[in-house]
Amino acid sequence: MRRRWNRIAMAGVLAAAAMAAGSVAGAQNSIEVTRNADTIVYGSCVPQLKAVNNTAAPVDYLEVALSFTLKSGESRTLEFRSRYREGIERPIAPGTSADLKVQLDLSRPLGVACSDIVSVKVADTICEAPGGPCPGVLSVDPERH
Question: Given its phi and psi angles, is residue 14 left (phi above 0), alpha (psi -120 to 50 degrees) or beta?
Fold first, then answer.
């Protein structure tokens, strides 16, 4: 009876290790975008995003558009970019991270305090790597943590 439990315990350990390896492998082929702390610029809330490139290829350009629902019921969209679309290239190398910025000269600011944001959802994404779209999975978590 003792041997049977040892085999069952070993099978459980092996299954857990396989699941952990699968989740690590999945994370190694992804680009993860998360929301950082919000800042105030000229009295208006400017959320911050961070992208982590867990793929083997550099990311040439990354843009995430978030739609914000405000207390007033209005909806506003901000576009967060890794660089200016036609500007100097600043690739996000494999295994590194970069801040995605709202270019206030191209986007209308939210014009409200951060506490006036009721909800946030992803409106659009663009991800380009050398030779085409980014490899792997692009995941965006628009909620502040």
Answer: alpha
CATH number at residue 66: 2.60.40
Whole-number percent of the chain with pLDDT over 70? 79
For 53-74, write each residue's pLDDT tens digit: 999 999 999 999 999 999 999 9
Residue 72 to residue 117: CA distance in whole angstroms: 9
pTM: 0.77
Domains identified in the chain, total number: 1
CA dist 135 and 125 (Å) reads 14
> What's the Cα-to-Cα distance from 94 to each of 28, 57, 98, 101, rounded to whole Å?
10, 6, 11, 19
Is 3 among the domain residues?
Answer: no
Quote the pLDDT of residue 41.
87
Residue 100 belongs to what domain range? 30-144
- Best CA proximity match to 32, nearest among 145, 141, 144: 141
> Which of residues 61 and 7 earns the better pLDDT score?
61
Give domain status of residue 10, yes or no: no
User: Is position 23 within any domain?
Assistant: no
Distance CA 31, CA 94 (A): 10
Assess if residue 11 is contained within a domain.
no
